[in-house]
Amino acid sequence: MKWWQEAVVYQVYPRSFKDSNGDGIGDIQGIISKLDYIQYLGVDVIWLSPVYESPNDDNGYDISDYYAIMEEFGTMQDMERLIKEASDRNIKIIMDLVANHTSTAHEWFIKAIEEPKSKYHDFYYFRENAGHVPNDLQSVFLGSAWTLNQEINEYYLHMFAESQADLNWHNKEVRLELYKMINWWLEKGIGGFRLDVIDYVAKDIDNKIITDGPLLHDYIQEMTSQTFSNYDVMTVGETWGADTEKAIRYSDLDGSELSMIFNFSHILLDQAGTEKWDYKALDLIDLKTNFEERQQGLYQKGWDALFWCNHDLPRIVSRWGDDGDYRSESAKMLGTLLHCMQGTPYIYQGEELGMTNVPFKTIDAYRDIETINMYNDRKAKGYSMEVIMDAIRHIGRDNARAPMQWDDGPYAGFSDAAPWIDVNPNYLKINVKNQRADENSVLSYYRKLIELRKKAPYKDILREGDFELIDPKHPDVFAYKREYTKDGLVVICNFRPYPVEFSIRGKEVILTNYQQARQGNLLRPYEAIVYSLN
Ligand code: TEU
Ligand code: CA
């Protein structure tokens, strides 16, 4: 077993985690001030969303200098101190490698424009201006993926915002520059990387192949051999286009590619149309089938990243739990379901509190470029305001980006000044301070889940055990068992806000989200129980 197969990861979105200097924007010193809390959780790794220099069009996913820290977040000394202070607490820092694109404010892009005959011009995808866009490729953030640069009268490709120009990975010079930067950061003692949209980097744009370009695995293997494999680090790829078969290849246990990937196939189960804004209710059978296929498909062949949330996704308790009467029970149930499977669990900041989506009424409370583009696009297309705002409230990315809720003081203890984005009004009720004092809080429960992975005999079962659904066709209960040598666990989760008949149980209760043992064969609303198998 590798260290990252025994780890639990905590994702920090720096802009929204903790502000230390009263400008309403989270920063690195703020994160350092909360390392004791992160250590208290019991996690082993922090995935830090980008802190590099950036114009912030996409909150740091538009990098203008990989070797400098965004001024609002602090200094390189702060970053080095964070790595050290985390290491003193046996916590590794993995950084966010955004290498599919750079900001158009990056010196490479500036030189590509100022010196079109220089080597930098081929660092990006430029095409001549024949009076129209080169082809109909569309940006993830809506609109054409091509923008005409007036200075050189050429189009350039951006799969995301106009200010995020796609790097041409087919140019070996680009790859070598990226490997140099990766090694520069690895030499600073970071624990690895999360790789932003890594399945886009080998795109074949003239054949309009964006995801899974033919040379993708060649490039990943080359990158790994020239960087990651020379250090004892973990890597996790963001691959919206992955399924289990691809996941096995990316996470091949021979270490030739990545440690694991984020497979979003479960996240897509409640998407109704081609865009995420058109959603439908989740069918629990689909979720059970999805996880069964992944757990069994990857068993002893690869490794999975287990997640519900991240900085791009709505809060899971609002999405597939209940953020009303049964918020606490359903948040614990969802945590139980995920953390008892095989793989490396990821907790997004606030998920351990059962933080919910934000109830903002109008578009001016939102900050995310993806949301604002959708608002303008659908308004122009004649969608009603309530339909637009309902979709944003349901699945917009700012649901994850409202400030972390530390206490019931001003701005939830996130900042002394008005934050860059409003705090969720429910911070008075949902915050670290009151949950640390409550042994029955979501926070206290998540700490028990994390601890389960650390202590015998459960850690071996969770890490190495197999996976088998129990009563797969049950429409309301997600139950499975994990077996490893003579030990095993039975995990039973009621996905409904009402009692459900379910007679199966295990030997003794290891963990449950209700204080009193259940009577008879009924599972209470969102009841989760982890039993020993025998
Ligand atoms: O996300 C890639 C990506 O495709 C997501 O934007 C996703 O499609 C969308 O957010 C669904 O709501 C990564 C980063 O996680 C994201 O924050 C960046 O905006 C994007 O890449 C560009 O770097
Ligand atoms: Ca600040």
Protein architecture, described:
- With 534 residues, the chain is an alpha/beta fold.
- The protein folds into four domains: 8-101 and 172-365 and 400-445, Glycosidases (TIM Barrel), CATH 3.20.20; 107-166, Oligo-1,6-glucosidase, domain 2; 366-399; 464-532, Golgi alpha-mannosidase II (Immunoglobulin-like, Sandwich).
- Helices cover 27% and strands 17% of the residues.
- It contains 15 helices and 22 strands.
- The chain has helices spanning 28-32, 35-41, 76-88, 107-114, 172-186, 216-226, 244-250, 284-298, 316-319, 327-339, 369-380, 385-395, 432-436, 442-452, 458-464; strands at residues 9-12, 45-48, 52-53, 65-69, 92-97, 101-103, 126-128, 146-149, 154-157, 164-166, 192-195, 234-239, 260-263, 305-306, 344-348, 468-470, 477-484, 487-494, 500-501, 509-512, 522-523, 528-532.
- The strands form six sheets. The chain has an eight-stranded parallel beta sheet, covered by helices on one side. Strands 16-17-18-22-20 form a five-stranded antiparallel beta sheet. A three-stranded antiparallel beta sheet has the order 7-9-8, with no helix packed on it.
- The longest helix has 15 residues, at 172-186.
- The mean pLDDT is 98.
- Bound molecules: 1-O-alpha-D-glucopyranosyl-D-fructose and calcium ion (CA).
- The site of calcium ion (CA) has 6 residues, from loops.
